[in-house]
Every structure is written in C-alpha cells, then in structure tokens.
C-alpha cells in the first residue's frame, strides 16, 4: 500500500525549500490559499520559525523515497486559532500536499498525526478552514470527525472570482 512507504516526522530547516515549492504551486494554481504572489524560501523559513520557535507549535512533513533519497511530499502545521489568550484551547491546522502525490492518503496521515499532537497539547478544539468548496479538504476533515459549522460568503478574491470559506470544527471532548 502507498501509505506504507510514507514517513511522518517533524519538519527541519532542510525541508523548507521543498515546502516552499509545494505551497507556491497552490499559490499559482489554486484557491486553497488566498495568497497570490509566490513566496521565497527565506519567507517560508521565517513562517516556519514563527510556528516552531515563536509559537512553539508542531510542524510536520510527510516524506517518501525518491530516486535520490528522501523527498518531502506534504506538510502540516498547527497553530492556536487566534492569538488572544481566551482562544488558548482552540487550534487550527494548515495542510498542503505536493500536487503529484494527492489522493493517496498522505493528507490523511498528516492530519491524523497533527490531531494526535493537538490532543497531547491539551487542545479542546481544532478549526479547519476550506476555501471555495474545496471538496477534498472537506472530505479529509470530515473523515476525522470535523463537523461543518458555517460558510463565509465571498470573503476572498482570487483569479477574478469571489470565494467562500467553509469552517469546520473538531471538538476533542465530543469525539473521544
Ligand atoms: C486537501 C489535501 C490536503 C488532501 O490531501 P490528500 O492526500 O490529497 O487527501 P487523502 O488522499 O488523504 O484523501 C482525503 C479524502 O479526500 C478524498 N479525495 C482525495 N482526493 C480526491 C479527489 N481528487 N476527488 C475526490 N475525493 C478525493 C479521499 O477519498 C478521502 O476521503 P475519504 O476518507 O472519505 O475516502 C490535498 O489534496 C491538498 O494539498 N490540496 C491543496 C491544498 C489544500 O486544499 N489544502 C487544504 C486547505 S488548508
């Protein structure tokens, strides 16, 4: 099975170039991110440090074996949903898979692991945000027990189209 050769581990600095490529593909081609201009490896490094060093939150990658050794094919990180202290029990995830490796359970393996870590961190909720009726992201989150909360209409504009965002919630007390 494909997922047998996937390894999930914490990200490190040497992964950042591959992470940047994965994310820039989504910037160029998709409405999964509302960002419109590709970012540099240095900018991604700064964002990685924001998650891992400043916020002390998990940043994980999925890897597999390529012809020249290990390659990064997806990443996922967790952050507090909002910075204000009252939100301290509510987290949010962000997940991106290399476009050639989608639909092979890589996203499921990453999300499963980040949910485990969120529980270990004593989070009470996780919020998933999917834009533009992203069916795969919606399926992925529902697979792990997230329930649909609401849509915000036309909050994004990309590729000359207005885009909705859908919010999903996983409450760990309800799903234990
Ligand atoms: C959304 C994303 C993270 C999902 O990861 P993935 O590895 O492709 O997903 P998985 O293979 O683990 O499949 C997850 C679910 O989606 C379904 N799915 C996967 N690809 C699909 C496709 N092309 N069409 C329909 N359903 C699909 C799977 O069947 C599975 O559902 P199930 O458990 O009910 O069977 C990935 O496609 C991606 O990176 N997309 C672009 C970025 C993005 O949208 N990120 C999320 C917003 S932050």
From TrEMBL:
GO molecular-function terms, A-Z: acyltransferase activity, transferring groups other than amino-acyl groups
PROSITE patterns referenced in this protein's UniProt entry, alphabetically: GNAT
Pfam families given in the database record: Acetyltransf_1
Organism: Heterostelium pallidum (strain ATCC 26659 / Pp 5 / PN500)
Record-given protein name: N-acetyltransferase domain-containing protein
Superkingdom to which the source organism belongs: Eukaryota
UniProt domain N-acetyltransferase: residue ranges: 6-173
């Amino acid at each position: 099975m494909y997922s047998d050769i996937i390894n999930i581990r914490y990200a490190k600095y040497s992964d950042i170039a591959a992470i940047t490529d994965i994310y820039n593909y989504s910037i160029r081609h998709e409405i999964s991110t509302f960002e419109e201009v590709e970012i540099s490896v240095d900018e991604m490094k700064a964002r990685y440090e924001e998650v891992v060093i400043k916020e002390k939150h998990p940043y994980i990658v999925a890897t597999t074996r390529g012809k020249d050794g290990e390659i990064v094919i997806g990443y996922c990180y967790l952050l507090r949903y909002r910075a204000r202290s009252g939100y301290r029990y509510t987290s949010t995830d962000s997940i991106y898979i290399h476009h050639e490796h989608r639909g092979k359970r890589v996203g499921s393996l990453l999300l499963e692991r980040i949910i485990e870590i969120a529980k270990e961190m004593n989070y009470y909720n996780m919020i998933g945000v999917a834009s533009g009726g992203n069916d795969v992201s919606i399926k992925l989150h529902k697979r792990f027990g997230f329930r649909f909360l609401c849509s915000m209409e036309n909050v994004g504009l990309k590729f000359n189209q207005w885009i909705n965002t859908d919010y999903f919630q996983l409450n760990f007390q309800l799903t234990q």
